[in-house]
Amino acid sequence: MRAQNQKLWLAVAICMAFLSVQVFAQGGPPPGSQPGDPYQNQGDQYQGGGDPPGRVARLGYLSGTVSFQPSGEDQWSQAVMNYPLTTGDRVYTDRDGRAELETGNIAVRLSATTDLTTTNLSDQLVQLGLAQGTLRVRAYDIMQGNSVEIDTPNAALTLLRPGSYRVEAYPDDNTTLVTVNSGDLEISGNGFSQTIHSGQSVKLSGQDEVQMADVSNPGSDDFDRWCNDRDRRFTSSASRQYVGPYVPGYEDLDQYGQWQPTPDYGQVWYPAQVPVGWAPYRYGRWAWVEPWGWTWVEDEPWGFAPFHYGRWALIGSRWGWVPGEAVAIRPVYAPALVAFVGGPSAGVQVWFPLGPRDPYFPWYHHSDVYLRQVNVTNVRVNVNIVNVINVRNVENIHYAYQRVAPTAVSTEVFRGGRPVARETVRVDAEAIGRARVIAHPDVHPDVRAVHAGAPETHPAVERTRPRVESRAPVYNGNNGNRPGAAPRGNENRPVQEQTRPAEVGRTPANGGNNPPATNRGSFDNRGNTENRSNVENRGNVENHGNDNRGNVENRGTPDNRGNVENRGNVDNRNLENRGNPPNRENPQAPPAARENNPSGPPTRGNNPSGPPTARENTQNNNPAGQNRGNGSPSGPPTDRRPLVTRNPAPQQNPSFSQRQGAMQEHPGRPLEPQQVDNIRRGQPAGPMHDSEPAPHNNQANQPRENNSGASHNSGSSSQHGNESRGGKEKDDKKPR
């Protein structure tokens, strides 16, 4: 009976928190705003009075060479596992690369030479921009009122129900191949709207006038089989029953730990094989991710869900993760569930994990509604967090693990996004326990933190992002949803995967001297591509990501969003025969638009060196790699086709260099929405309006850095487990 009452209490609390979003939206602007503030009407990246989105996409799998470009930036860096992707981020997989993004209920998988932008990741919309390459999207569930959209150079694709979808974009040929393995999908463009169903494959061409042709359903390839294996990890995960389907990374918990019941918290997850002295938020790095600012990126492959949702608890001598209640409401993502102690004057930065009864106070712009949501959705039934967050001052909270598990590093390690574990410094845990908790570290990030401290890369793709254009569809009869209507996400009929036709006469993965190829339909008569090498000046790109990183002059600017690669003369390609049965005995006749082996690139047409979407200019000897990504020495061309969208894309974030000056006034704190909007308009950022729960500079009782210097024992002081607000953390043994 007690357990039932507790669950009922949590359900009521969560419902009230989410219903209050509407009340807050109707009741006026968020706290701290002034009449006429432009961010009162922000409707793109900031929802609900300027609150950050509650949803992110976890970068959950990386193989081969994968590059990452943060929102607002034009520099590529090496992608980092467990990085939280948000609106405007961009990922590129090289010819040996694969990657997976996931939001819990939606998995997005990239094959080789794929250029993908997370155009919009809001609480209601997952909008992806596929400029080139191959994408598989598996929607395990689509919440009612939510939309999933894939934008391509030919049309916008809207998922109408859960299912499995494959999209291949060939910008050089101005075609897109769409396959629905299960589910329903609407294709919309300029005056065009059509719905296709499970088992159908179509080829899209044109843009101003979209042309659609049915093609034969191609067989599975190695990329499909890998995607199916990844799907099984999600659908068979035992952790889903304890965490819920909307927490990214739950599927990795099965392999790296175990669930055990506890009297205080119910089911708790314990990581396996952690090193001696392991503590939460010690084995990873700090990154600067807008709009949250300082964000923790954990090293372990399982290290996403337990560091952005729920709370950690020291139970006996073991650290266990206590998730929020597994209910049918998406929990709100948090950049790091920690509290900070110290300041730059001490030369070190100190933080510690929050316990199950400790409130989380965001250090970025947020409303009262957001404060309740991010706490209530990440705790269990017997934690009355609502009363605790009403304290509104981080200094008046008795934190459970302030003395137990502090981690400290030098300010420079923190500022640059460097790995923490090998550069921790020893601090006096008792002094940390007496020190004042601060709202956030007074540390201004450098550009390395924007890239999570990862090294720079130079993939064979343009720095400038694809341009987007919104094209209104027409609606005839039952050809899809009308504008303003939510996709049929509530029609969560069981997903029945359609088996592709048997592979007949497929080229063996290691057969012949050419890279592996898969024949997806017949793109006959594509051989006349002699002029392709004359439209780019990419130079030698064999060393992208390694050497010669400085020789990449004239690669474009962030303002030239549409001025990217001239795809050149691709006449005489007769694409009308794509739906005809392919010539499977001749692997060079049709192009292989898919990868069949992650260690080798696919081939297209008669180009055995790789797909033209990421080809090298082998006829122009430019050893320095100059103008790579600009298309020609004379400057970036302007005829790259934009991505067609159904939902207008939000405005791009200002770059870090544009924001850097305005951030100096409040080091360590991201700009507020109205400041970002002012910078977008070329105006001064203006002042911040929000008040903080604690003052910035804390000079009293600062932690003292021990003369022993770098150490791995910052959390090895005596454990005072009976320090929590509710007195439940009664374990006083050393963590292991």
Descriptive account of the structure:
The structure is a single chain. The protein is 13% helix and 22% strand. It is α+β, with helices and mostly antiparallel strands. The strands form 7 sheets. It has a 17-stranded mixed β-sheet that branches. A hairpin with a 6-residue loop joins strand 24 and strand 25. It is globular and about 70 Å long.
Short description:
With 736 residues, the chain is α+β, with helices and mostly antiparallel strands.
Describe the secondary-structure layout.
Elements: H1 2-26, E1 57-63, E2 66-69, E3 77-78, E4 84-85, E5 90-93, E6 98-102, E7 106-110, E8 114-121, E9 125-139, E10 147-151, E11 156-159, E12 163-170, E13 175-182, E14 184-189, E15 192-197, E16 201-205, E17 211-215, H2 222-235, H3 240-243, H4 253-256, E18 257-262, E19 266-271, E20 284-289, E21 293-298, H5 305-308, E22 311-315, E23 318-322, E24 338-341, E25 348-353, H6 368-376, H7 385-389, E26 407-410, H8 411-415, E27 425-427, H9 429-434, E28 437-438, H10 447-450, E29 468-470, E30 643-645, H11 656-663, H12 673-680, E31 705-710
Helix pairs in contact: 1-6
Largest sheet: 17 strands, mixed
- The separation of the N and C termini measures 36 Å
Strand content: 15-25%
Percentage of residues assigned to helices: 10-25%
Alpha-beta content class: alpha+beta
Q: Cα-atom Rg, whole angstroms? A: 26 Å
Q: Number of DSSP strands?
A: 31
Q: Uncertain runs with pLDDT below 50, 5 residues or more?
A: 7-48, 475-638, 696-736
Please give the count of helices.
12
Overall pLDDT confidence: 73
